[in-house]
Design a protein that fits this description.
CATH architecture: 3-Layer(bba) Sandwich
Structural class: alpha/beta
Number of strands: 18
Number of domains: 1
Number of helices: 13
CATH superfamily: FAD/NAD(P)-binding domain
Helix content: 25-40%
Strand content: 15-25%
Largest sheet: 7 strands, mixed
Shape: globular
CATH topology: FAD/NAD(P)-binding domain
CATH class: Alpha Beta
C-alpha cells in the first residue's frame, strides 16, 4: 500500500510496538503511516509472555479478542532449580490472580500477536502500511521534517515515532549514541510438538529452570499445540565485535550437569540460530521536537522480566493518551516521555537484576531458594507494581 507523503504520524518500524502505535494514533483521529524495512510484517522468534499489563493494553487497542483466539492460558509459573530439579516457588494464575490484576496471564506465538495487531491496523480507518521501506535519513529543520528511504521515496510528516527496535535508525538521528550493549548472554530458542515433551513440571505451566549463569524457560503456545523453549547462558567465550562465541559446543557444556528434564529440553532445542542479548542504560531523554522513540528503540531491556513487548504496548497507549490531551506534537511527545521514562528506566535496571538473581551460584543461590520457598503461591505483592499498570496511570498521562 502506498502511503501519504504527509501523514500526521510516520511510524518507523512495523513490529509489535509500531503497529500498536498506529492503532493508538488512529484512535485519536490522526492519520498514521507505518513503514517497515522488511518485505513483510513478521516477528522473528517463537513464544511471548503477555502479563496482565500487556493484556490491558491490547484491550485498550481493541485487539485483545483476536489475541485470545490463539493464545494459551497457563495454570501458573513455576521456578525450578535446574541442577536438582526441585521446585523453588510458584505463582498461580487462577481466579485470585485475575481478580487482583483484572486480566489473565497468557502465552502466545509472537507471529500470532503481530497478526492480531496487523489485522486491527488493516481494518482501522486512518492507517496505511508499507513494507520494503528502509529509512536512511531524517532531518528536522524548524517546522519541517524530512524522512527519506533507501529506495529514494520521501515523506514530510507532521511527526515521527521511531519504533524500529534494538538497532533503531531513528534513535541515531535523535541521539547518535551508538550501538546497544552486548551483555555476553546468549539464547537458543524454538518450538517442539507438545506431545514430545515429558511432563516433568506440568506442560500447562510457564516453567523457569534456573541455575548458575544458565536458565531454561518452557511453556505451551498455539492453543497448547506447541511447546516453546528458550535456553540462555552467560558465555565465557565472548569476544567483542565477533560472532564466534556462545556457540553450540558451549551450550552443551554449560547445560551438561543439569537435572534430567532440563537436559531433555535442551537436547531438543533449535540450534540453527542463536541470539546475543543486548540492552542499554536508561537515558534522560529520547525525544527531539516532533520526533520521539518507543519500545526497544527508546528503552531496550534484557528479557528477564518478560516485559519488552508489554512496555512497547504501554508506550503506544500512553502516546495515544498524550496526543488526545495535548494541542501539539511537541507537547504530546514531551508528556508521553515524562510519563513513561521513570517506569521504563526502572524496568531496564530490574531486568538486569533479575538476570543476576536467577543466575546466582553457591551461597547466593542457596539463600535465594530458601527465601523464595517461604513465599505463598498466591502472594502477589512483588508483582503489583509491574502488572497493575494501565488504569489510573494512563488516565494521568
Amino acid at each position: 500500500m502506498t502511503g501519504p507523503a504527509r501523514p500526521d504520524v510516520l511510524i518507523v518500524g512495523g513490529g509489535i510496538g509500531g503497529l500498536a502505535t498506529a492503532l493508538a494514533v488512529a484512535a485519536t483521529g490522526r492519520r498514521a503511516h507505518v513503514v517497515e524495512q522488511a518485505s513483510e510484517f513478521a516477528e522473528i522468534g517463537a513464544g511471548i509472555q503477555l502479563a496482565p499489563n500487556a493484556m490491558r493494553m491490547l484491550e485498550r487497542l481493541g485487539v485483545v479478542n483476536r489475541v485470545r483466539q490463539d493464545c494459551f492460558y497457563p495454570q501458573g509459573a513455576l521456578l525450578m532449580n535446574a541442577l536438582t530439579g526441585d521446585r523453588i516457588t510458584a505463582l498461580t494464575f487462577d481466579d485470585r490472580f485475575r481478580l487482583a490484576f483484572g486480566q489473565p496471564y497468557v502465552v502466545t506465538h509472537r507471529h500470532d500477536l503481530l497478526d492480531a495487531l496487523l489485522q486491527g491496523c488493516v481494518e482501522a480507518p486512518g492507517i496505511t502500511l508499507e513494507t520494503s521501506k528502509r529509512v536512511d535519513h531524517l532531518d528536522q529543520v524548524g517546522d519541517e521534517l524530512l524522512v527519506r528511504c533507501a529506495d529514494g521515496s520521501t515523506y514530510r510528516p507532521k511527526s515521527v515515532v521511531g519504533a524500529d527496535g534494538l538497532w533503531s535508525t531513528v534513535r541515531q538521528f535523535v541521539l547518535g549514541d551508538g550501538p546497544p550493549k552486548c551483555r555476553q548472554h546468549v539464547a537458543y530458542r524454538g518450538t517442539i510438538p507438545i506431545d514430545s515433551v515429558a511432563n516433568a513440571a506440568g506442560v500447562d505451566n510457564v516453567v523457569w529452570w534456573i541455575g548458575p549463569r544458565i536458565h531454561l524457560i518452557q511453556y505451551p503456545i498455539r492453543r497448547g499445540e506447541l511447546y516453546n523453549q528458550v535456553a540462555v547462558f552467560e558465555s565465557d567465550q565472548y569476544v567483542p565485535d565477533s560472532d564466534n562465541w556462545g556457540l553450540v559446543d558451549e551450550l552443551e557444556t554449560r547445560f551438561r550437569s543439569v537435572a534430567a528434564p532440563v537436559a531433555e529440553g535442551v537436547a531438543k532445542i533449535n540450534r540453527d540460530r542463536r541470539w546475543a542479548l543486548f540492552d542499554r542504560d536508561p537515558i534522560e531523554n529520547w525525544t527531539s521536537g516532533r520526533v520521539t522513540l518507543l519500545g526497544d528503540a527508546a528503552h531496550p531491556m534484557l528479557q528477564y522480566l518478560a516485559q519488552g513487548a508489554a512496555q512497547a504496548l504501554e508506550d503506544a497507549a500512553a502516546l495515544g493518551c498524550a496526543l488526545e490531551i495535548c494541542d501539539s506534537y511537541e507537547a504530546a511527545f514531551s508528556r508521553y516521555q515524562a510519563d513513561r521514562l521513570p517506569r521504563t528506566s526502572s524496568l531496564q535496571i530490574w531486568a538486569r537484576r533479575m538476570g543476576e538473581i536467577v543466575h546466582f551460584d553457591g551461597v547466593g543461590a542457596i539463600l535465594r531458594d530458601e527465601l523464595l520457598r517461604s513465599r505463598a503461591e498466591d502472594d502477589f505483592r512483588y508483582f503489583e507494581w509491574l502488572y497493575s499498570y494501565g488504569g489510573d496511570d494512563l488516565a494521568r498521562a
